[in-house]
Design brief:
Low-confidence stretches: 9-15, 17-23
CATH superfamily: monomeric porin ompg
CATH architecture: Beta Barrel
Radius of gyration: 18 Å
Number of helices: 1
Structural class: mainly beta
CATH topology: Porin
CATH class: Mainly Beta
Largest sheet: 12 strands, antiparallel, barrel
Number of domains: 1
Number of strands: 14
Strand content: over 45%
Distance between the termini: 30 Å
Helix content: under 10%
Order of helices and strands: HEEEEEEEEEEEEEE
């Protein structure tokens, strides 16, 4: 338990140091094809029909060496309310390359990405999913107006066989296609809303399964380097719902 507490203290300390150590710059975090280096800290609650409800903390840190490259790391810490267990969840890494960006055109951006999720979480404790996930994808940007843009993302997902015997999940690998429409509504220079419908088609053992996920988020810039955020997610097929609040520091 002391290790987890020290980790959280370190993250928040790093967050505060970064806030004052960097130079001023104009941030437009509403567009996912704008790449910045930042640290996001969020507190979350996940309501799940299976495996038990979770509360916890999630750290997202990104590094953008240029406006064309983005590297992301995501580390969750969760407590399972039903099982009384605490630990790291599955860790995510992402790389995004953006060879084209021109917001003056209707087709404003285009680039490939790859997501990797490592099954670090303990399946027996109801914290991890127990599968490796590899998801290459393509993203674009449709600039309808200054106050409204849509960023479609098409990706392929491969989920490995379960790495642990502590699961009742299907033992075969899972393949799938995901289509997202990240729709951004700018309310002002500081505030924006993002509505993201997601359509999933998965195949396992030759059988297909369709699901729909709805995400809603709100962002508000606090000064030149900070952002407050709120997030809602509904996975209606699996009866999984998530609520998060967070703070992001850009550096």
């Amino acid at each position: 338990m002391k290790t987890y507490v020290l980790f959280i203290i370190f993250v928040f300390f790093f967050c505060n140091v970064s806030l004052y150590a960097q130079e001023e710059q104009q941030i437009d975090a509403s567009k996912p094809t704008n790449f910045y280096s930042y640290l996001n800290n969020s507190l979350e609650f996940l309501s799940r029909e299976k495996k038990g409800n979770l509360i916890g903390y999630r750290a997202n840190i990104t590094y953008s060496p240029s406006e064309r490259h983005l590297i992301l790391g995501e580390v969750p810490l969760h407590y399972n309310l039903q099982k009384g267990k605490f630990g790291f969840g599955d860790i995510r890494a992402r790389y995004f390359y953006l060879p084209y960006k021109n917001y003056e055109k209707f087709f404003g951006a285009f680039g490939p990405s790859v997501d990797i999720i490592a099954p670090v979480g303990n399946v027996a404790n109801g914290i991890g999913n127990g599968r490796w996930v590899i998801a290459p994808g393509l993203a674009g940007a449709l600039m309808f107006a200054e106050w409204f843009q849509v960023f479609p993302v098409l990706s392929y997902q491969y989920m490995s066989k379960p790495i642990s015997s502590d699961t009742t999940a299907v033992s075969d690998p899972i393949n799938g296609i995901t289509l997202q429409f990240i729709s951004v509504f700018a309310l002002s220079q500081k505030a924006f809303i993002v509505v993201t419908p997601t359509f999933n088609q998965h195949y396992v053992s030759g059988t297909g399964s369709f699901s729909y996920i709805q995400e809603l988020s709100f962002g508000y810039m606090v000064g030149p380097k900070g952002q407050l955020s709120a997030y809602l997610k509904g996975d209606f097929k699996d009866n999984l719902y998530q609520v998060s609040v967070g703070y992001t520091v850009f550096f």
